[in-house]
Amino acid sequence: MGKIKYLKLLEELFKKSPVVDANSILRIVKSKKNIKQYNKQLIRNLILNGKIKRITKGYYTIHDEPSLSVFCFKPAYLSLQDSLSFHNLWEQESIPIMITTKKVRQGIRKVFGVNVLIRRINKKYFFGFELCKDRKFYLPYSDIEKTFIDMIYFKEKLSDKALSEIKKRIDKKKLNSYLRKYPKRFRDRVLRVFVER
Question: Do the Cβ atoms of 84 and 94 come closer than 8 Å?
């Protein structure tokens, strides 16, 4: 298969999928000898020519959207202040905040010159999100109930205004079903914030 054909297939792959991993690129160019070396060189050239961008090690995109990095830390979803902004529960802009079960370094990273924050969570608390359309992408955002729980779980401050908006829109039945997965002490803490403030 000629180089032009590879490039055409890769172009199609990047159009179909907002984030592409190195293994997917490897599968397209698999007939070459010294495949790993060729693959690295090919990716390097595509980056240098501005055809693709590196999000993080082994993950690439043609888009300029830092939130896409959520797909590099799967299983992961967007939550906390980022989700509050997405659901219009407060007016402030937020950086992308990812919650993952993956054993990765927590904290701030730079993606396309923008800060993104990574937090880790126990697998048993990994639920309560869905793919939502955000501009031109479908991204996994925590729903309102899980966002509220995550804010308390990660000891983040909730303004009175945001809390008042959450109270108006929260599904209490869903909140209670989510809280059953947590220890009683934490459940009580969440309900206390919900009722007392």
Answer: yes
Q: What is the CA radius of gyration of the chain?
A: 20
d(CA 102, CA 196): 35
- At 159-178, the pLDDT tens digits run 999 999 999 999 999 999 99
Structurally, the chain folds into a number of domains equal to 2
Instruction: Give the C-alpha separation, 170 to 194, whole Å.
Output: 10
DSSP structural state of residue 121: -
Record the pTM. Answer: 0.90
In this structure, the answer to whether residues 56 and 74 fall within a common structural domain is no
Domain that holds residue 53: 3-61
188 and 168 co-located in one domain: yes
| Cα–Cα distance for residue pair 118/100, rounded to 1 Å | 7
Last residue of a domain, one of 14, 37, 61: 61
